[in-house]
Write a structure and sequence with these properties.
By secondary structure, the protein is of the alpha+beta class. The protein is built from five helices and seven strands. It folds into two domains: 114 residues, Protein of unknown function (DUF541), domain 1 (Translation Initiation Factor IF3, 2-Layer Sandwich); 103 residues, Protein of unknown function (DUF541), domain 2 (Alpha-Beta Plaits, 2-Layer Sandwich). The relative contact order is 0.21.
Length: 248
Amino acid sequence: MNFNHAVRWCLLVVALGFILAGGSAAAQEHPTVTAQPNTVYVGADGKFETAPDTALLQFNISAQEDSAKAAYDRASKNAEQIRQILRSNGIEPKAAEIGFFAIEPVYDWRTAKRKLIGYRVNAAVSLKLKDFSKIAPIVQQLADTDVTENQSLNYTLENIDAAKAKAVEDAYQKARASADAIARASGRMLDGLSYASVDTQEEIRIMPMKMAAPSAMMRAEAAPAPTAEFTPQNVTITAHVNAVFTLK
């Protein structure tokens, strides 16, 4: 086999691989159902939309100093300020969760030989709030103290299973209505459900919110917090149902 034939053969193998992979993916998305006599196969989409029940506030506690101990001490002071903010808003500090904590060296890479210039402490903190009225003051106070980085606020739904069930019910009712219409059009009646597959998806649109720097807050002393007076975005759960009904 010469070089050109070898190249064409390799390209053919690659192309066949893509085709087979595409066919496999399609089979996973839509389960194959063997059609039986006196049955009707339908698919339908459903959804359930509801207001979120939980606000998730996330931020980092960061501090950099010449020594590891100094960075640790500064991070500890910053954490104590955060605890005071939570207590002043009627929240126990233990309600906040630490995702990770790390102390790492910081180097100057501008020269060929790296130079140690300090140590940095990083801790990721998350706080779940059921009372949305507490969000604005906490956001405001965290921005004013300048002890956190990478703040974000997202709205979520904790009771997700109940919402998924409602989305599935909506999809099933639509699927049955379609099957019933087909049965009537053919002069038949539906007998019962023979097979069903369900796929649900949570469509939470996450919109990270970066808080203003303290200097910006000082320039607008009377301005409300970024979250004030706005309505939390709804959470949408979608479901797809494939169903086979028998016919009388």
